[in-house]
Design brief:
Blueprint (H helix, E strand, L loop, with lengths): L1 E3 L5 E3 L11 H11 L6 E2 H9 L7 H16 L5 E4 L2 E4 L7 H18 L2 H13 L18 H23 L7 H10 L4 H13 L3 H19 L5 H11 L33 H11 L5 E5 L6 H11 L8 E5 L12 H11 L11 H12 L5 E7 L2 H4 L10 E6 L10 E4 L5 H12 L8 H6 L4 H13 L5 H8 L10 E2 L2 E2 H10 L3 H12 L5 E2 H8 L3 H13 L3 E5 L2 E4 L1 H14 L2 H23 L6 H4 L13 H22 L5 H16 L2 H18 L2 H17 L3 H18 L2 H17 L3 H18 L2 H15 L4 H18 L2 H17 L3 H15 L5 H17 L3 H18 L2 H17 L3 H15 L7 H11 L47 E2 L5 E2 L19
Helix pairs in contact: 1-3, 4-5, 4-6, 5-6, 6-8, 7-8, 8-9, 8-10, 9-10, 13-14, 16-18, 21-22, 21-23, 21-24, 22-23, 25-27, 25-28, 27-28, 27-29, 28-29, 28-30, 29-30, 30-31, 31-32, 32-33, 32-34, 33-34, 34-35, 34-36, 35-36, 36-37, 36-38, 37-38, 38-39, 38-40, 39-40, 40-41, 41-42
């Protein structure tokens, strides 16, 4: 069977008889499949070929019908198969005319190079005889782009004609060439080779005047249309004509290489290591035909080594040669190679006489593509500076492939396969160091490779140092690298230099990008956002964004997520060196600290619910920063920048008085997001820094924040002494409003520790201050605290206090009081054994909070929902909520909530008959909660009981007696339930006795596990 594309698509059976294809759609289908013989052509591509960009709804069924008709015509089993995601047409060697033609072109080219003119003529005639018209005639309309294959075939045909006529002239067969060449000159008036050949044919048949006229006509056309003179080869032919008649034909100057195929690849990298997946991707890309692959990455990451390694493995796939050209895009002491010089170098290496290379870049590029078109050649273009530098060097032939290395990903090159390189993995890094140094597996290298940033260039340097000095151990060398300064000094060896490579990249930056890199070195953050870099540069954000884009382009920083940028560790070292040379580091640090502090302050104000006391806890304005338009943007900024805020606190707490102010603002955000681990870090540092600076107000704030942290973490015993110190500090500062908050907190902590009488006394003092200030919001906070205190003896009385706080919150429009009251009412109803009412209040609490509300409130509400659903027998729904709670608490590092949620999950698993899994959860809960210094003894006692064989069923709220509680006179709950009196007696029954209910019945009091409640149980910890 024969397939034909050199003309209208056609198919002939084994006897050579043409098969009728019928419709244009069937011819287009055949052509589209033959453009990729023996490869799967996706259905979507076939539809696009048949119907364009908007195929009809019936396209899939119609395509199936066309495939069926084509199979009928081919009449061979397995010739056209459906292979996901499309179809594949099997074509054997020699069956497709385009492949036969290209084989003839290769034969003619090789024969031309060695001067075997008879073979050239025979191969050319055979190849040209395959042409029946324009390739793929009738398949593409006049407004449609012709495929690259058709363009390449046309160029190959013209080259074959040129070689054939050169061979005929060399063999002295010039008599019959005139008419054919005259027709070609008329058809291709700018193709100089045909003019040269016609001049020689005319001259050698005694027609000198006509030959000179051909030259004059060509020269006039070139000057008028292109502004250039004929090339060297035509000028030489002109000189031959001017010399007069000749006695024997002279062979024409060759237009193609007359040497062996070039093999210019640099030596195979001796220690190439790892990157198996990237190697496979690059090999696949380069063997796909007509491919361009860009290997990009920072200085020293191993781009050139990868390109050379893969090129060597593929040398057999490119029999016409492997070209290598260093473009010097980022080479110390070198300027990037200009495109005209690069094109000339490639043509020279392909054997083209330098005198035949046109001066104009476009003409030289066209010649390069013409020479490469019929070949299978691999080009390695190393160290490219830009897309503009390499674009003129790219061949058009499908048989060629190009691999480019560059620090930039060269995204302006359309259709290129891009392979960005990252540093090596730890194991590959160790393997590379061992290979270079010759050190055995007995010496540990983990610390050394991490200090090299796993960068191959740095790893080669340390490997070379270890190889040069046998007494130098990896640990000693790691110690040198780990010094505060000078790491880059130890990463220079012979001609290998990390600093030198980075310096070339820096020197090639524009002014803004260089400034951004230096300022990033002045304030070393874990990652950078555009706004922070703008403050460092003292510029606007568009300029900062453009500078960062440039740094990404040359691989000095990496964009790890949208708008977030991270330099490699060694780039950080280099940037610090730049910053030290520039000076002004302290001013840059102070500027960024104050911006981060003020930005956090603005975020806290944006997130502050109506009626809350956030402004009371925030410092005065710290610096200059724009407010946030909404809470979502404030939360997003907080989540993105928290790692930087912690780093700034750790690095500069004792160097700048702005850090305690920054921490005051950030503490509110960290509590809101439930980031207790980060809150612990910055809180301790802020306290030490405030004391070092002698800043009494910042010290009092830090004490309050740390007390709140320990309370939220389930450690009231640790929180109490800190809060006592804070209370003393606020008294000494004369700040009565903060003193009142600390008193409320003190009452909460005493209640959490079981010291109920003392808690009531402290809350009474707090309430007196509230009435003096006429502060409704703070009154609501104290009422919530009293409600929690009452829950130990009279849950209905507790509900009354919470409902009064709820009423205040609704009157003020304060969501915090409202959602906190709902949550605490829910827990009181659980204590009463009324889960349906509890569930309603927990759901309302979470509805108010939303998904982005303060974590402490969310976690308490969700834990309450889990328990309420269990109490209602809705275990499946409870399990879903419990799993969600566990995941969220784990992500935030809230160990206390993880332990409490595991307790509930174990109960749910036991109810489902999965006792073994339940016991695993309980054991994990015990391990977690034991770390909280006795704060969860009742829950732990229940868990240990559950872990005993045949443990009784429990709902997680074991009953236990408590002493009575004294509270201020006149603070009766709304229900009118019995209230403890000031003298310690109570109208409520003695502890352990039944508590009268609203309906006249009674129930035994119960204590839930002591878990901190939502935010405003701790006024300074909200």
């Amino acid at each position: 069977m024969r397939f034909r594309l050199l003309g209208a698509p056609a198919v002939h059976d084994a006897a050579g008889e043409p098969q009728h294809l019928g419709s244009a759609k069937l011819r287009t289908l055949l052509a589209t499949l033959l453009l990729r013989p023996n490869k799967v052509v996706p259905v979507d591509e076939l539809k696009a070929a048949l119907w364009g960009d908007e195929p009809p709804a019936s396209a899939h069924a119609s395509l199936h019908n066309h495939v069926t008709r084509l199979r009928r015509i081919l009449a061979e089993e397995g010739r056209l198969r459906a292979v996901a995601p499309g179809y594949v047409l099997r074509v054997a060697p020699g069956e497709l005319d385009t492949e036969v033609f290209e084989e003839r072109v290769r034969t003619a080219r090789a024969a031309c190079g060695r001067g075997d003119w008879a073979v050239v003529v025979a191969a050319a005639r055979d190849g040209l005889a395959l042409w029946r018209g324009s390739p793929l005639a009738g398949v593409f309309g006049p407004d449609e782009a012709e495929p690259a294959l058709a363009q390449r075939l046309r160029e190959s045909r013209l080259l074959l004609l040129e070689w054939r006529y050169d061979a005929e002239l060399a063999l002295g067969r010039h008599d019959a060439l005139g008419p054919e060449l005259a027709a070609l000159v008329a058809e291709y008036p700018l193709r100089e080779t045909f003019h040269r050949q016609l001049m020689l044919a005319l001259h050698r048949t005694g027609r000198q005047a006509e030959a000179l006229d051909v030259y004059r006509s060509l020269r006039r056309t070139l000057v008028e249309e292109l502004g250039i003179d004929p090339g060297p080869a035509v000028r030489e032919a002109h000189e031959e004509v001017l010399r007069g008649p000749i006695t024997k034909p002279q062979p024409p100057p060759p237009q193609v290489p007359q040497r062996r195929p070039p093999a210019q690849l640099p030596p195979r990298p001796a220690y190439f290591t790892g990157r198996e997946e990237t190697v496979a991707r690059l090999r696949t890309a380069l063997t796909a035909g007509g491919a361009v692959a860009v290997v990009s990455g920072m200085a020293g990451v191993g781009k050139s080594a990868l390109a050379a390694h893969v090129a060597h493995t593929l040398s057999g796939e490119f029999p016409d040669g492997q070209l290598y050209l260093n473009l010097y895009g980022a080479t110390p002491g070198m300027t990037p190679l200009e495109a005209p010089k690069a094109v000339a170098a490639l043509l020279r290496d392909l054997g083209v006489d330098p005198r035949q290379v046109p001066d104009a870049l476009d003409a030289a590029t066209a010649l390069l593509r013409s020479v490469l078109a019929p070949t299978r050649t691999l080009l390695v273009l190393d160290d490219a500076a830009s897309a503009a530098q390499v674009r003129p060097l790219l061949p058009a032939g499908a048989g060629c492939a190009v691999v480019i290395t560059s620090r930039s990903s060269l995204t302006a090159l359309d259709g290129a396969e891009r392979l960005p390189l990252a540093p090596l993995s730890e194991s590959d890094s160790e393997q590379l160091v061992r290979a270079v140094s010759g050190r055995g597996p007995g010496e540990r290298l983990e610390r050394l490779v991490e200090l090299c940033g796993r960068l191959p260039l740095a790893l080669r340097v340390v490997g070379a140092r270890l190889a040069a000095r046998s007494a130098l151990t990896p640990d000693v060398l790691a110690g040198l690298l780990d010094a505060e300064t000078g790491r880059l000094d130890h990463l220079d060896y012979d001609d290998l230099s990390v600093r030198g490579s980075l310096a070339v990249a820096h020197d090639g930056l524009d002014r803004d990008a260089a400034l951004a890199l230096r300022r990033m070195g002045a304030v070393d953050l874990p990652e950078y956002g555009v706004a922070a870099v703008a403050r460092l540069m003292e510029s606007d954000e568009p300029r900062a964004a453009a500078a960062l884009d440039r740094l990404v382009e040359v691989a000095l920083v990496q964009e790890v997520s949208y708008g977030r940028f991270v330099p490699h560790d060694l780039v950080r070292d280099y940037a610090r060196e730049l910053a030290e040379r520039e000076g002004g580091r302290e001013a840059a640090v102070e500027r960024v600290l104050r911006w981060y502090g003020e930005r956090a302050r603005q975020a806290a104000l944006t997130l502050s619910p109506v009626g809350s006391d956030t402004e009371l806890r925030l410092p005065d304005p710290i610096g200059e920063a724009e407010p946030f338009p909404c809470g979502d943007t404030a939360l997003a900024w907080c989540d993105a920048e928290v790692v930087n805020a912690v780093a700034l606190t750790e690095r500069y707490a004792f160097a700048s008085r702005a850090v305690p102010l920054l921490v005051r603002a950030w503490s509110i955000l960290l509590r809101h997001r439930g980031r207790l681990q980060e809150l612990a870090v910055v809180g301790r540092i802020a306290l030490d820094a405030a004391r070092a600076h002698g800043d009494a107000e910042s010290e009092a704030n830090a004490l309050s924040d740390l007390a709140g942290l320990h309370f939220l973490s389930g450690r009231p015993d640790r929180a109490l002494p800190l809060n006592e110190e804070a209370l003393t500090a606020w008294r000494e500062l004369g700040n009565e409003r903060r003193m009142q908050r600390s008193l409320s907190n003190h009452g909460l902590l005493l209640e959490a520790l079981g010291r109920y009488e003392e808690a009531a006394e402290v809350l009474r003092e707090s309430l007196e201050l509230v009435h003096r200030f006429d502060d409704a919001y703070s009154e609501g906070v104290v009422l919530i605290a009293l409600g929690n205190l009452y829950e130990h003896t009279d849950a209905r009385a507790a509900i009354g206090y919470h409902e009064r706080a709820l009423e205040i919150g609704m009157r003020l429009g304060g969501d915090v009081l409202v959602q906190t009251s709902h949550c605490n009412i829910g827990y009181a109803y659980l204590t009463l054994g009324e889960p349906a009412d509890a569930l309603r209040h927990f759901e309302e609490c979470l509805r108010i909070l939303g998904d982005d509300g303060p974590w402490h409130g969310q976690s308490q509400g969700r834990l309450g929902i889990v328990r309420a659903l269990r109490g209602l027998g809705r275990d499946e729904a409870a399990a879903v909520e419990c799993t969600r709670l566990l995941e969220s608490a784990g992500a935030r590092g809230d160990a206390q909530m993880v332990g409490l949620a595991r307790h509930q999950q174990g109960l749910l698993l036991r109810s489902a008959g999965r006792v073994g899994e339940a016991r695993e959860q309980w054991r994990a809960a015990v391990r977690t909660l034991e770390a909280f210094d006795g704060a969860h003894e009742k829950t732990l006692a229940e868990l240990r009981e559950l872990l005993r064989p045949a443990a009784p069923e429990s709902d997680g709220t074991s009953p236990a007696p408590v002493p009575g509680v004294a509270v201020p006179q006149g603070e009766a709950p709304a229900h009118g339930a019995p209230v403890p009196q000031a003298d310690g007696t109570s109208s409520a029954p003695a502890h352990g006795a039944p508590v009268p209910q609203a309906d006249g019945t009674s129930s035994a009091p119960a204590i839930r596990p002591r878990v901190p409640r939502p935010d405003h149980r701790f006024a300074d910890g909200a």
